[in-house]
Write a structure and sequence with these properties.
This protein is α/β, with parallel strands linked by helices and about 290 residues long. The chain has 2 domains: about 140 residues, Quinone Oxidoreductase, Chain A, domain 1 (Alpha-Beta Complex); about 130 residues, Rossmann fold. The chain is about 30% helix and about 20% strand. It has 10 helices and 13 strands. It is globular and about 60 Å long.
């Protein structure tokens, strides 16, 4: 079974469960951690040495089924007004929250997000909620370019139709404080380095297909660019839920399509081909 972004209704609980009860609606953190390794004890469960991830072969079965069994700590209650579809989107939003929290008390003022899929849009929504107003976004899919602009990007463009660097530099000759690379593309990494001002920060969320990527080391060195890799999220599920519950972000536009469990194959075909403006396809089994 596959699938790792999910929300559902608690059917039964074990004897040791104290925080949840049958009937509660929850968003599910797909990462089951050991709580005992050096990483967990250091407050880094996202890099747990013994992590078991939902829907990953050899680790844990996925959520595209009638029932799953998860530890209590992985199940986060949803706000009363939140839908299960919003609960599904808590997982990508939590990654956006985490990527901004890594800046601590000094958030960037001007940023670009390269790649406007669910993760890039989650960074955008979080950045807006955190008061960042100058946000540039890119994507190769026109529907996502438009979605990012509608969600609050100051400018959004398609790198296959526009010179992204020239367009953003015309608006920001001093360049940007931070770039969030959210598509796993070598060209986007090169664009990011060019768009960053000296002392800027490149946060890498995208997952490249090849095992290796490269940088112009001289440009990186002369600008003294900092590189930060993001491994999912760390303790950010409650924050993501709170942002949705408080109406500070609206993730609903990302759930563009809905299918029944029996229509899973159609959902995969849609998403694999990026058809019909899909951002996130929700599969329901209740």
């Amino acid at each position: 079974m596959v699938g790792h972004e999910c929300a559902g209704i608690v059917e039964k609980v074990g004897r040791a469960v104290t925080r949840l009860k049958p009937g509660d609606r929850v968003a599910v953190d797909p990462a089951v951690v050991c709580g005992a390794c050096d990483q967990c004890l250091a407050g880094r469960p996202n890099t747990c040495r013994n992590l078991l991830f939902l829907g990953t072969p050899g680790q844990s079965s996925g959520c595209m089924c009638e029932y799953i069994v998860m530890p209590e700590q992985n199940c986060h209650p949803l706000g009363e007004d939140m839908s299960l579809a919003e609960g599904v989107l808590v997982e990508p939003l939590s990654i956006g929250v985490y990527s901004l929290k890594l800046f601590g008390d000094a958030p960037p003022e001007k940023i670009a997000i390269l790649g406007s899929g669910p993760i890039g849009l989650s960074v955008l929504l979080t950045a807006k909620a955190y008061g960042i107003r100058t946000i540039y976004t890119t994507d190769k899919i026109e529907a996502r370019v438009k979605a990012a602009h509608k969600a609050g990007a100051a400018w959004s463009g398609n790198p296959e139709k526009s010179d992204i660097i020239a367009e953003i530099m015309a608006r920001e000759p001093g360049l940007l404080d931070a770039v969030f690379e959210c598509c796993g593309d070598q060209t986007a990494l090169d664009q990011a380095v060019n768009l960053l001002k000296p002392g800027g920060r490149l946060t890498i969320l995208g997952i490249p297909v090849p095992d290796r990527v490269s940088f112009d080391i001289h440009r990186l060195r002369r600008k003294e660019i900092s590189l930060i890799n993001v491994r999912r999220q760390r303790h950010c599920f409650p924050d993501a839920i709170q942002l949705i519950e408080d109406k500070k972000v609206d993730v609903r536009f990302m759930a563009t399509h809905e299918f029944s469990l029996k229509e899973t194959a159609k959902a995969f075909e849609l998403v694999a081909g990026y058809h019909n403006g899909v951002i996130k396809a929700i599969i329901r089994n209740i």
